[in-house]
Specification:
The chain is α/β, with parallel strands linked by helices. It folds into two domains: 330 residues, Immunoglobulin-like (Sandwich), CATH 2.60.40.420; 109 residues, Orthogonal Bundle (Cytochrome Bc1 Complex, Chain D, domain 2). It has eight helices and 23 strands. Strands 1, 2, 3, 5, 7 and 11 form a six-stranded mixed sheet that branches. Strands 12-10-14-19-16-17 form a six-stranded mixed sheet. β16 and β17 form a beta hairpin. α6 crosses α8. The protein is globular. 44% of the residues are buried. Belongs to the multicopper oxidase family. This is Copper-containing nitrite reductase. Homotrimer.
Length: 472
Amino acid sequence: MGTILLVTGVLSACSAEDDFDPETAEIVGEETAELTLPPDVPPPIERDHATKLIANMEVIEKEMRLADGVTYTMWTFGGDVPGKFIRAREGDMIEFHLQNHPDNKLPHNIDLHAVNGPGGGAESTFTAPGRETVFTFRALNPGLYVYHCATAPVGMHIANGMYGLILIEPAEGLSEVDEEYYVMQSEFYTEGDYGERGLQPFDMDRAIEEDPEYVVFNGSVGSMQGENAITSERGDQVRLFVGNGGPNLTSSFHVIGEIFDKVHYEGGDRVQNNVQTTSIPAGGSAIVEFETEVPGNYILVDHAIFRAFNKGALATLAVSGEEDENVFTGQQLEQVYQPEGGAVQEIPQEERTIPAAETLEEQMEYGREVYTSVCQACHMQDGTGIEGAFPPIANSDYLNENPDRGISAVVHGLSGEITVNGETYDGVMPRQNLTNEEVANVTTYILNSFDNEGGRVTPGDVERIREQGPVE
């Protein structure tokens, strides 16, 4: 079962009985904590007593995917970004083991915001490569807390991926829900611009200026989209444990098409009801709960919206089940309305260096990247488009009959009626700010995907259409 951990109203009912004191609670037995990689969370705690909980966390430095064609050397807690999710109970005595893998190059430590003690454990866990440190703390305060590396330079260690969440359940536990998930937003400061291919180094100047190239959920662009989308069924109660690793920006967390029934803001026990967007500061968290009333794809975003559509802060919750038109009908009418005319707009131009594709395989790879970042929002991940608004490019008679039409639509824009697969569309597509190489790659990708008939477009073909003018 997928799990997204968010702070919800459950914590207001989570304060222990009047006679429960987490500081003096009897420790019964011993167990090893089950830690999980995002977006999963460990199962709810069923025991009714405090215990000695042993948590093992290994630091691993490794090159990982940041976006399609882009990699970054991540410093991780547990081998992924964000780090493994920790779940404990109020009153537990937590024995924390930090292991720094022998192949790592740097010392690391951990500051858990759930700790009452100097440095949140950072002073006790300064760990050289090939070494292990241990310290113990009592979980005194229920809530959802961030943890992160606090080795100097602290900002750089956090920016390279060293953060995660620890949940301290109240003594009574949390209310039962159908799905829980772990979601964490963060920024990456790379020397190369967004989408620039290859291994990207960390850029300290951009970090100091708080100007990230990437703002993402769970460590990379598209980490929870497509086949990796989190899921639920219609009528489910969903709980998201949401954190913000920062290191700089505040998140305006929002799920498009949903209203949060409950928000435990800042990860504590205060609850807001019926919330559209909740602020999560760097180094902070929230628990959000909502019911999925209608099936469909719900998009998780940072509503500082350019971060979502231009820097990567997008994820998908895919909800299955039967429609409920009493709640939502879907589109009931579509017709032309252009009181100010239908002129083709133009995307502003900018200079970029694009690698040349030498083979069809490279064209397909580079073209998929362009499609994902430029075309997918309108024509959908599977190429089906949006009925009545954006025509399908999947199994498209319009494109298969004359691939030059696709090139023309990208470089010249398109307005007026067209017929695709027997359906009429009358809209406006703006000219795209793409090089000849990019247009050739994305058109080739489309022609060889989505059940289309194949073909290959060259930059020379694109230049020909630019000079020739729009193709009918």
